[in-house]
Structure prediction request, 188 residues.
Amino acid sequence: MTNLKLLNRKNIYNGVVFDIVKDECEYISSGTKTIREVAFHNGGAVVVPMLNDKKVILVKQFRYPLQQEIIELPAGKLFKNEEPLHCAKRELEEETGYVAKKWKHLTSIFTTPGFCSEQLHIFLAQDLHKAKGGRKLEEGEEGMELLVLPFDKVLKMIKQKKIVDGKTISGIMLAMLGFKDSSGRGIK
Prediction:
C-alpha cells in the first residue's frame, strides 16, 4: 500500500526508448512533500538460447552508457503492444541467426524498480536451428560478437565477474534451476 499521494506530474522528457516524469508527492502519514522521478519504459524480452549439447548462445556487444563491451543474453525492446514472446523470437533470430521450436517463459523481472518501470520477460529457447538467411543485425549491432559457450563455463564467468549484466545473470540462474534434477545435481 502506498504512503504517497501524487500532487503534480510534470513531463520532463519524451524519448525513443523511454519517457521521464517528475512527480511532486506528499507522504500521507506526515504531509511531508517529496519528489519522484520515473522513467517509463515499454520493457523487453530476454532469451536463454540453449543448444542440444547444453551450450548457451550469448552476445558480446559495446554498450554506450558503459563505454565498454559486455557479454549478454540476446534481448531487445518491446514495441508498443508487442507480445513478449514475439519480441523474444524476433531478437533471437536477429541477434543469433537461430530460431527455436520450444519456448518456456521463465519469469518476468523489474530491472530497476526504484526509478524505472522496465519489465523484462525471460524465456528459455530450446530445439534451436539456424534460421534461413542467418543473423539480421540492426544498425549499430554490426560489431556484435556471437559466443557459444558450455553452460558450466557461463556459470564460472558469472562467478568470476566476467558476466555482469543483470538480465543475463537472472536468465542463466533460472535456466540452471530448471535443469537441476530432483537431487539438485547437474543439468539434464
The chain has two domains: 4-41, 44-179. The longest helix spans residues 166-179.
